[in-house]
Each structure stands twice: as structure tokens, then as C-alpha cells.
Amino acid sequence: MLQLIRRIDKQIEVSFNHLPWFLRYTVGILFFLAIMWFISEWWPKIYEVGNEFGRELYRYFHK
Q1: Distances (CA, A) of 10 to 4, 5, 6, 25, 31
Q2: What span, in angstroms and rounded, lies between the C-alpha atoms of 27 and 16?
Q3: Which domain of life is it from (predicted)?
């Protein structure tokens, strides 16, 4: 499994290096924006669930 991951990673690296510099920067910026969108979309939901879980733990241990 690890060998498969390494092979795929190497293929991605080789194909990425064949791109011109401005396309590499564009892909990098788009990838960064996608990560920022994902975090901004899911962080409030994750925070809310964690906050509710923390309140339940507090109630359980501080009766």
C-alpha cells in the first residue's frame, strides 16, 4: 500500500514539474483557496459539536 502511495506521489510530482511556472503557481493558489474554503465551511460545525460535547462532559463530571 505504501509503495502504491509513493508511486502515485511520484507521478503527481513528475506531471506537476512539467507544467510552466505560472500554472504551478495557479494550481498552488487554487489548492490553497480550496483548503481555506473547506476550513471556513466546516469549522463552525466542528466547533459547535465539540462545544456541545464539552458541555455534556462538564455536566457529567460536575453533578
Answers
A1: 10, 9, 6, 19, 18
A2: 9
A3: Bacteria
Q: Which helix (H) or strand (E) holds 25?
A: helix 21-61
pLDDT band at 31 (very low <50, low <70, confident <90, very high): very high
Instruction: List Cβ neighbours of 24 (8 Å cut-off, separation of 6 or more).
Output: 16
Nearest 5°: phi and psi at 49? -65, -45
Give the per-residue pLDDT at 32.
Answer: 93
Instruction: Name the DSSP class of 19.
Output: S
- The residue behind cell 502504491 is 4
Longest dimension (CA), the chain: 63
Per-residue model confidence as pLDDT tens digits over 5-21: 899 989 988 888 888 98
